[in-house]
Each structure stands twice: as structure tokens, then as C-alpha cells.
Amino acid sequence: MKSNAKAFIAFSIGIxxxxxxxxxxQFGDIADLIVDITSSALAGIPTP
Amino acid sequence: xxxxxxxxxxxxxxxxxxxxVQFIMFLLMNLSFFLIGATWLVLPVVMPKSIFTxxxxxxxxxxxxxxxxxxxxxxxxxxxxxxxxxxxxxxSWGCPFGLFQDIIGFLTSKINKYEPTKDSNDSxxxxxxxxxxxxxxxxxVIGIGVGLGDTEQIRASFxxxxxxxxxxxxxxxxxxxxxxxxxxWGGIESFFNLxxxxxxxxxxxxxxxxxxxxxxxxxxxxxxxxxxxxPVGIIMGQIGKNSMIGVGRNITKCTxxxxxxxxxxxxxRILSHPPEKVxxxxxxxxxxxxxxxxxDAMEIKYL
Lengths: 48, 303
Description:
The complex is a heterodimer of chains A (48) and B (303).
Chain A: H1 3-23, H2 26-35, H3 39-42
Chain B: H1 5-28, E1 42-43, E2 56-57, H2 58-67, H3 73-86, H4 89-93, H5 96-107, H6 118-147, H7 151-158, H8 171-185, H9 194-197, H10 202-220, H11 224-228, H12 231-240, E3 245-249, H13 259-263, H14 288-292, E4 298-302
Parallel strand pairs in B: 1-2
Antiparallel strand pairs in B: 3-4
């Protein structure tokens, strides 16, 4: 398969995923996740 | 073919321009500096959450969504769309950890660098593929457990890895989350007091050792972390090696002098790729080869 065709297929998959995410309202769902600093990121940090 | 002084000047200018663009991108991802709240900007870069961060790296968000039992459509969409058009361009021009690697590389440019062969370059990359695959697998297992309603039990079982398995160990998290929080919370004082030094969590020292190891790696191997271990780079490399924008060689001008390969910070064997476009999962479109080519044979190609 030509490389350009692979690029267009990958781009189309991305657009379909984005459209699905928007229709599912996923951008609203992730708002809370994005503002959080997770316990994984905070693991082991000494606090005073 | 000799490498003229003019070409060295071009290279330095290009590298400084790239560091400037990366710094602007870093500021855009940390808009709390300017009292702007969280955005939904998701980019294929390594950017774990910290005090000032208002957006998130796609792989950090992907882990978080998987472990929360949400299908990660948003990060996957950004991986595919940006990867298909720009390839790994954000690794060179937008990644904060890439900026850190470029600054360290710039400051230690007098030190002799280790340049692996093409085979070893590819085989070390398999470690990154293992990290990426393992992280996604663990996140999916946690997500299934959470989806089945065993949230408390599964979070307790996986401990610090239960929300973002790789982010907990990533040297980028140590740099962008742990170090700023140590100063912000005043935890840095613990290191200057013998009574409290011994009380610091063992997991902190594990993270510190991984960060120190990564730092030594990038001193001796240009963009060593980026080319072999970064999960974002592994994913973007697979999607982006056939990207619409890339670099190629004009075969009527190319003299096979090899300067493009010598300057490539990712060790891409450019001359072994088809001249129409370099199809390598390592290429980050940094354009060092374009700036360094004394015959102007390296060009940016579209579609």
C-alpha cells in the first residue's frame, strides 16, 4: 500500500474517533480528569 | 565534501529557533502562569500534570482514561490526526521533555556522544515498545476492574500505579511534577535535615534514580530517551512514519556525503531510505538535516 494512502487512512481514523468523542460528549467527561494531579504523579513526594 | 562554517551557523540558528518554539509551547501548556484555567488541549507530547499545567499530554490522558474505564477516544484521535499529518514533529518542536533533552544536549555538546548502529538503535527501541505495551495492558486491566465495580480493591492492589501506571515512573513526571511540587510544598527542606532524610518514601528514591539514569542517558546519547524509551514517541513513530509531511532527498543534488546522517539527533540512516521521503519511526522532523546539507539536497516534502 502506498505510504500516502496509509497517512490518509490514519487521518480518517483520527477524524472518526474525534467525531465519536464529540458525539459521546467525551470532552466534557475528561475536563475533571485534566485538572487533577493523580496519586500516581504524586507518589513518594515528601511534604513538610 | 567539507562542512562549511556557514552550515554550522545555520544549524545553530535552527536549534536555537527550535528551543524557542518549544519554550513557547511549554508556556502554552502552563497557562496558569498567566492565571488562565484548565484547557482541553491534548497534544502528543510528554506533559504530566503539575501546578501550572492547563493541558495534558495524550499518553498521560490515555492512561488516566483507561484506568477510569473510559474508552480513550480523545487522546487516540489526536494521536492519529496529528501523527498522520505531522508525524513526530511535536517531539522536536512541541514536547517539553524534548526541550529539556535539547537544552541538556546543547549544554553538553563538547562531551563525546555515543552513536549506536542502526541495528542497536532499533533494538533499544524495543524496550520502549515493551514499556508502552505493558503500560496499556496494565491500564486496561485496571479499567476492567474499575468497570466491574471493584474500584476500591483494584486501586489498593495497584497502589501508586492505579491511575497512571507509566506516569508514576516517568522521568518527565519527576522533572515537571515532583521537582516543582517539592519547592511549592516546601518538601525540599526534608533533604537538608538528617532526621527527616531517612523518612523519605522509598518510591521517591526509585523515581529519582530513574530520572538520574535518564539524565545520564541524554548527556551521552542525543535525545536518548526520546528515541528509545518514550511511549509517546513509540506511538507517534508507528502512526507518523508515513505522515503527509516529511523530509526527502533531491537525488540530482545529493552527493551521498553523509552529513545529514551525522547531524541527525535521532540517528536516522537517511541515505538508506527512499529519496522521495524518509520513512523512519525515529524521524522527528527537526530539520537539522535540511539545515546542514551543503548541497541543499534535503527538502521538506508534502504528501
